[in-house]
Amino acid sequence: MGQSMRYLMVLQAATFAVAALIHAGALVAGYEHPQARVAESLIASVLLVGAAVIWVRPGWTRRVALSAQGFALVGTLVGIFTIVVGIGPRSVPDIVYHVLIVVVLAWGLRVAARMGPDAVGPGR
């Protein structure tokens, strides 16, 4: 289970990294937004560090997955709030991404919450 959680968190981090690159103008022109880029980069970093910690300390999988994905979910909800109030980027791809990543993060949090405290699985 720990290995699956690690892969999920790397995948989540990758989506935030791609979003940050888009908001930097590196992948797609016209969607630049410096504040979103910084937030997405920070969230990607937290998820990657969390995945690395799980790899090094598999016994910490549950608490690290809950912490890192919880941070990512709160950050994403802040992003949704900025979209709603008109501060953040309001493109259709931004809105769709936020909705989808909230679902993925919530699912990951649910899986992590249901792990036993010692649920490390293969790849210890």
Describe the structure.
The chain has one domain (2-114). It is mainly alpha-helical and 124 residues long. It starts with a helix and ends in a 10-residue tail after the last helix. The protein is built from 4 helices and no strands. The chain is 76% helix and 0% strand. It is elongated.
End-to-end gap: 10 Å
- Runs with pLDDT <50, length 5+? none
Secondary structure class reads mainly alpha
- Rg result: 15 Å
Brief summary of the model shown:
This protein has 124 residues and is mostly helical.
Mind sketching the topology for me?
Layout: H1 2-24, H2 34-56, H3 61-85, H4 92-114
Helix pairs in contact: 1-2, 1-3, 1-4, 2-3, 3-4
Question: What features would you highlight for this structure?
Answer:
4 helices, mainly alpha, 124 residues
